[in-house]
Amino acid sequence: MKRLLAALFRAAVVPALTLVPAFGPMAFAADADGRQFVEMSPEARAEMRAEMLDFQTALHSIIAALGERKFNDAADTAEKMIGVSAMGRHRMSPPNARPGMFMTNEMHAIARGMHVAGSDFAKVAKANKDGKGDPTKALVALQAVTGACVACHRSYRTQ
Ligand code: HEC
Predict the structure, then answer these.
(1) pLDDT tens digits, residue range 105-135?
(2) Cα 2 to ligand 1 centroid, rounded to whole Å
(3) Residue 156 DSSP code
(4) How high is the pLDDT of residue 140?
(5) How many domains does the chain have?
(6) What is the CATH number of the domain that holds 50?
């Protein structure tokens, strides 16, 4: 048993320790978090998280569709789930559950930019009448979408 534990220690802990110099300082990243804090109600944050998980799932499906050269599927998912068609999802919620009510103008602008980029991607990715699409152009257009995810996440925090 002792030997097993020692082996486990060597296998798991020692490699982890050797990583400490590289990753150690990250443990304190929250202390030096330069992102702007945006205070939201718990209801708005819950709505936002649900929406975010849908964005992430959409992105995953879009990349899978592009990999399978299903350009129209990628385009349709992007328009429906991320594009301008996906705007106003919280319109019917009470004001305190609408994330947009708590966003700064700039944060809102990034959000709108993401929806527009989603629709732009859908147009670029759509297959032509021969059923063909251009994966390179589609990826470039998709980067505008992921760029908006990154821009918002790197600029703002809600906790
Ligand atoms: C306008 C700002 C903004 C944009 C744009 C944005 N996010 Fe977020 N995202 C947030 C904030 C704020 C949170 C943290 C919400 C909270 O927990 O309070 C978050 C959280 C998340 C989470 C974690 C959800 C959870 O369960 O905690 C995921 C995943 C995510 N975003 C994915 C994405 C993806 C993918 C995109 C782009 C397609 C994106 N987000 C675009 C602001 C944004």
Answers:
(1) 999 999 999 999 999 999 999 999 888 999 9
(2) 45
(3) E
(4) 97
(5) 1
(6) 1.20.120
Atom of ligand 1 nearest to the CA of 38: 12
Residue 40 has pLDDT above 70, yes or no: yes
- Backbone torsions φ then ψ of 70, nearest 5 degrees: -95, 75
Q: For position 37, what pLDDT does the model report?
A: 97
| Residue ranges making up the domain that contains 83 | 34-157
d(CA 113, CA 107): 10
Q: Is residue 39 situated within a structural domain?
A: yes
For ligand 1, residues with CB inside 6 Å are 45, 48-49, 52-53, 55-56, 59, 82, 107, 110-111, 114, 145, 148-149, 152-153, 156, 158-159
Q: Is residue 125, in this structure, part of any structural domain at all?
A: yes
Q: How far is the CA of 22 from the centre of ligand 1 (A)?
A: 27
90 phi, psi to nearest 5 deg: -100, 10
